[in-house]
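TL;DR need structure tokens for one chain.
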Amino acid sequence: MGYYLNSTRPYDAFLSASRQPYFVDKTDILESLVCRSAQASLLPNGPGVLYSRYLAVHWSSGFGKTTTARLIAAYFGKAADGHALFDPLHVSRQPWYRSCLNQYNVVFLPCLEQPEGEHNFRRYWDRIEHLLLHDLMEAYPYAGITEEFSLWDAFTFVFLRYQETFVFVLDDWDFILHQPTITVAEKEQYLHDLGCLLKDKAYVELAYLSGRHPIPNYSSASPLDMFYEYSLEKVPFSTSFGFTDAEVDQLYRRYRERTFHPAVSREDLRQAFGTHRNPQGVILYHPQSVVSALENNRIP
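>> reply
TL;DR here they are.
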């Protein structure tokens, strides 16, 4: 298994999250990623068809973007057997659950990671290219890939020789675009390179980006214009990130059961963190703040 390609890291991280006392099952988001036709009649011995090839979500920190990215990579990815992890969760009720579980090559890029030493765009992107090329050369030694290849050429060689496709999950994909050392030209280069890697490529089964802001914020003519974008204010993904009233009720019951002298009331949580609503009027709580208040037995 590689560092980015078919890595066990997202599986291990999501497994750890699922064991926490205030874990909330958000695996229903997978239903929005799997094609409706695939849900109706899946081949018994093959993977399902993914609903849309290009999806991007953006909202502020603390709403579970990273946990969701790990969930997606852990479910679709071949790196680890996910039955023990996902069988008890909501997604296991879906008719396509087993046909899609662990059926895909996944490239998981946690884009917050930076090289040691001086932080600049070239070292940041060179590190990603080097590690991912190394993964591809190790996994497909007869594809004819060399270190001089671009990433998109390397993936194309793999596809042409082996007919292998990939799910790309980029968590905090726009992190580098917010760094003070990056120039305008480097921002354009980054967007261009991502576009070359992902846009209209036969080897892309799914590309999922999570970030802070909408893609058009970074360029008026973005090479990433193929993505369908969703924010906290849009369905179908809004309740896949913020906690709903019912979920906070459940967490509060756990809190009362495991806390010797509870100092936080249910109304405290509503007043402090139930400040968002989606277009359907559903109240959404800030997950990180709710969990922090329950774990620390106080409203910050």
